[in-house]
Structures are given as C-alpha cells and as structure tokens.
C-alpha cells in the first residue's frame, strides 16, 4: 500500500517529537498547517497527511478526500461507516507512525490527532496501537466502531492521555456523539488515565480558545 502524501512542518531545531494530524472530510493536509505557529510547541514535527479521494454517499457520491465513506447522517445507523475504508486508512496511518519511529522519534513522543473524520480515525488507530503514544487528540470527532473499543483497545494505550474538544452547537457531529465517545473512552481506560473533555461555544469549527487549550496540552505531552 502506497504511503500517504503529506505536508510536513519541521521545527527550527531537530525534531524530538511528532504530531500526526488528520484532516476532516473534504479537506486536505494543508487545512491545519497554518495553526502550527499558534500552538507554541518546540522541537516538534507536524505531519499532515492527505486522505485518499473516494465517493462519499452522504454527499451524493461526490469524490473527495475522505478517510472512509459515510452512508448516513444518523449516528445510530447500522453500518454508518465503511469498515473496509476504515481498515485501509488505519493501515496507512499506522505506517506514518512507523515512519516517524524510523526517523528517530519513539512512539511515546508521538501524538496522534485529528479534526472531525480525522479525529475519528485518530481515536480508532490510537486506541489500538500496540505501543504507548504520547497522546491522542480528537477535535469535533467521535468513535467509529465504538462498540468494539472494549475488546480491541490495546493495553499499551489504556492510560494514554487523551484530549477531546467539541463545539456545543456542532450541527455536523452533534455534541452528544462527542460526549458518548468520552464516556466510552473513560469506561475502557485504565484507572489512572486522564481523558480531558473541553467544550466551546461554537459549531463544527475551531476557535482561538480551543487552539490555546490544544497548544498547552501538546506542550505538556511533548515537553
């Protein structure tokens, strides 16, 4: 399977940590590139991969960058997401983590994050990854295949610090989906795990207050 194309933002000094951040449906790796200077990190490489393009059912079958097909807007719809696409994207995202390790960044210095559909994939891959990560970041996302987390979550990441951010008036991924995801994360985590939930007066977007919180959290995870 071919490596995902990507945008990379290198720090001024040699990287001693990495953030792999996955964009949302219909966007690309350039989407969050401009926020890097706002986060205040040091010695951290940012990797923004581009999702493959595929037809998306809820958008009339239009071909666009997507980590997986979404067949229904209803979050309680059976087989809402395409499991084959999720598995394929997960494999490619894991390859990016392995690539960072090959470049000298250990797993416990790698944060996996994303926005919306990218956040869903960050949670999906991060919870199942067999080595302890520095953290998992989910912005305006939710759990895909959430009923499998209890059996598929790897012990290596049961205590991994996780930050989940959501807008209280999100009309794309309802806040109830974010809250339900956090409840499942906490239920399946180790007792000492820190699962932070932050909500903001916004929709399906990013706010300055949220970015300030994300930046502070990343600096804690990758000091």
Description:
By secondary structure, the protein is of the alpha/beta class. The protein is built from six helices and nine strands, in the order E-E-H-E-E-E-H-E-H-E-H-E-H-E-H. The protein has a single domain (6-221), classed as 3-Layer(aba) Sandwich (Rossmann fold). Helix content is 30%, strand content 21%. Helix 5 (175-188) links the parallel strand 8 (162-167) and strand 9 (195-200).
Strand content: 15-25%
Task: Please write the CATH class name.
Answer: Alpha Beta
Spatial extent as radius of gyration: 16 Å
Q: How would a crystallographer describe the biggest sheet?
A: 7 strands, mixed
Widest sheet, order of strands: 1-3-2-6-7-8-9
Reported by name, the CATH topology is: Rossmann fold
Question: What string, H for helix and E for strand, traces the elements in order?
Answer: EEHEEEHEHEHEHEH
Protein structure class? alpha/beta
Shape: globular
- In terms of per-residue confidence, which ranges show pLDDT below 50 for 5 or more consecutive residues? none
Number of helices: 6
């Amino acid at each position: 399977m071919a490596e995902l194309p990507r945008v990379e933002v290198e720090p001024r000094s040699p990287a001693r940590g990495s953030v792999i951040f996955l964009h949302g449906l219909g966007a690309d790796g350039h989407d969050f590139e401009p926020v890097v200077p706002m986060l205040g990190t040091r010695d951290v490489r940012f990797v923004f991969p581009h999702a493959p393009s595929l037809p998306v059912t809820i958008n009339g079958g239009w071909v666009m960058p997507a980590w997986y097909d979404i067949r229904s807007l209803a979050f309680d719809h059976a087989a809402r997401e395409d499991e084959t696409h999720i598995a394929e994207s997960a494999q490619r995202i894991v390859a990016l983590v392995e690539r960072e390790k090959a470049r000298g960044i250990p797993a416990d210095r790698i944060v996996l994050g994303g926005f919306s559909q990218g956040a869903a994939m960050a949670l999906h891959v991060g919870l199942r990854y067999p080595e302890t990560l520095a953290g998992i970041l989910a912005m305006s996302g939710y759990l895909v295949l959430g009923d499998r987390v209890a059996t598929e979550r790897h012990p290596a990441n049961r205590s991994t610090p996780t930050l989940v951010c959501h807008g209280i008036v999100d009309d794309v991924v309802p806040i109830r989906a974010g809250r339900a995801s956090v409840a499942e994360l906490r239920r399946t985590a180790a007792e000492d795990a820190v699962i932070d939930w932050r909500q903001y007066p916004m929709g399906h977007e990013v706010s300055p207050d949220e970015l300030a919180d994300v930046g502070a959290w990343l600096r804690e995870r990758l000091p």
